[in-house]
Amino acid sequence: MTQHSSSARRRGAIIAAPLIGALLLAGCSASGGADDDGSGATEFSFTFATSNNLESPYETLAKAYMDANPDVTITTNPTPNDKYGETIRTQFQAGNAADVVQTTPGSGDARGIIPLAEAGFLEPLGETASSLVPAGSETIFEIDGEVYGQPMDFTIAAVVASMGTAAMNGLDEWPATEAELYDACSALQADGKSLLALAGAAGPNAGLTAQGIAATRVYAETPDWNEQRAAGETTFAESEGWADTLQTILDLNEGGCFQPGAEGGGFDAITNGLAQGTSVGSFIPSGAAIEIAKAAPAEADFKVQPFPAADGGEPYIVASSNYTISINAASKKKDAAAEFVEWLATPEAQKIYYEASGELPISSYQDMDLSDTIYSTVVDLLAEGSYTPLPNNIWPNPAVYEALQVGVQGLLTGQKTIDQVLQDMDTAWGD
To answer: For the whole prediction, is pTM greater than 0.85?
Structure first.
């Protein structure tokens, strides 16, 4: 199942590239061109999602680009993650979206590049973006051979856990079985802490948590489950794996694995819980550990950990390119925007992105030595291909993922049953 682009492999180990030389190259890249005002100065805007008040990796990239290109001004628009998809779609429809926009692959999210491109909101990108698309993933990046989102990362969506916090609470190793997990939940709950922090009121975190669990309950046994669903060979309602996924969320809640009031928690519940040591881990994108670590003590020791499989099964995780960069088709700054997007694929930009975000760089993650990183615990899983792409990127429309997010929230509040959530997801699929 490992998805490698041959053209990406040819780029080699970019992380070792000298940063200073690369920034000099960047200095030659943004001359303003047709988008300047006659003085050589260039301005454009850049919108991206953010989940906390820490500096976003995209903000860091924009600053680095401006430092290397003094005549370029980038107006950054960090936007709350929980409503980001709806916000940018509204902006596109109103004609006031940014020139450059953070998006996601596929159709299953409100910020997904396929529905945005089909609506005419996104500009086709060039050969650089095409070369970075993982082999076998073309359908979630392209329409009629045109690529509309340049991949930035290879993200692991499992549990990001502070092993320092775990050790201080008597948990020397991450639970490998369900029994060990619930024992750890009980012990931590008795001390007023939780094994997992959940932003239950934030749909994206509720949905990501379900998908992370589904990796072991659905995709480990049936890697092509999404394809079977698309072919009408199965449904969510018929899937024992999806039912088990949702039941596990209920069991985690009832077992004291989430912090008190998890159903009403926002993203700050995760940031504060992990930084302050009141929770050990959370289902968040792997790179979020880097941002949270800035506010946590040095001994926090964050690691990406697989969620225990059911019935003694083997570990399985979610891993795929999850973040893309797109250009607004209505932008009057397309030349400048395109130069910036092109720069984002360079060794220097990918190095900055990796160091700022913690997300693996799309163009060289398979060549990196991850033994001393937050990913050391999942290196073998990546090498073995024991992972599935983010399911919602492959689903046919954002409504399916919305039904999952709202469904998980309903389970936590007692307003939904498992059967209702699965039926809602089938209805949203639309066949």
So the answer is: no
